[in-house]
């Protein structure tokens, strides 16, 4: 028996004990037994309420711990994907130690929203399940009764008629009518309890926010890597310029012309150079 049912029963018992006390007071009878019973029941109710609150607190703590763990995992995964997306093969060997991609508090916040939305969807699924199962069971029973009725009709059309057919058909018709009403009621109750669509919409929005923030951070990280690559390029260019001048070549841009890809990149007209 659930804690809520236990409290409900105790409240009914308390109401009966209070009624007995009122009757004893009205009739001038002994109130000791009624008062004793009231005291016992009130103590049981208080204990049941405390137990209910403790279980609720434990459940909330467990849920929060699960969300915290999911948030940490998703934050770490998203950050790792961002770092990998901004990686430039060979840059670390040329530039030395690269600037670390810092963890973004906004990603942690967005990851928590996703974790909360996923937990809410799981709750919506589990909350909806018993209603859906009840409707499904009624639907299955209704289908069985209709099939049984159809079998009798088919048999009779084939010439196999029995004395019990009329009574059986009447009973099946009554069952179909009752089950149809129960099935429709169960479907309505399930639909009223179904919060999955709203939960999925909330999750989709949270995941979109997280992905949007990840993309922004990936751009910032890639931009930093580009700046570091630029410093390496300029250092190499300066070295080549000095070395060229030492042998009388004073126009390094003629000796080391930029590639078409570099020109396009510098002028901002290049798109999608990855893989070149």
Counting H and I runs of at least 4 residues, what is the number of helices? Answer: 8
Strand content: under 5%
On the 0 to 100 scale, the average pLDDT is 88
Oligomer state equals: single chain
Fold blueprint:
Blueprint (H helix, E strand, L loop, with lengths): L2 H25 L4 H55 L4 H5 L9 H53 L7 H29 L2 H51 L5 H4 L4 H7 L10
What does this protein structure show overall?
The mean pLDDT is 88. Helix content is 83%, strand content 0%. It has 276 residues and is mainly alpha-helical. Helix 1 (3-27) runs antiparallel to helix 2 (32-86) and helix 2 (32-86) packs parallel to helix 6. The protein is built from 8 helices and no strands.
Summary?
The protein is an all-alpha fold. About 85% of the residues lie in helices and about 0% in strands. Helix 2 crosses helix 4 (about 105-155), helix 2 (about 30-85) packs parallel to helix 6 (about 195-245) and helix 4 runs antiparallel to helix 5 (about 165-195).
Main attributes of the structure:
single chain, 276 residues, mainly alpha, 8 helices, elongated
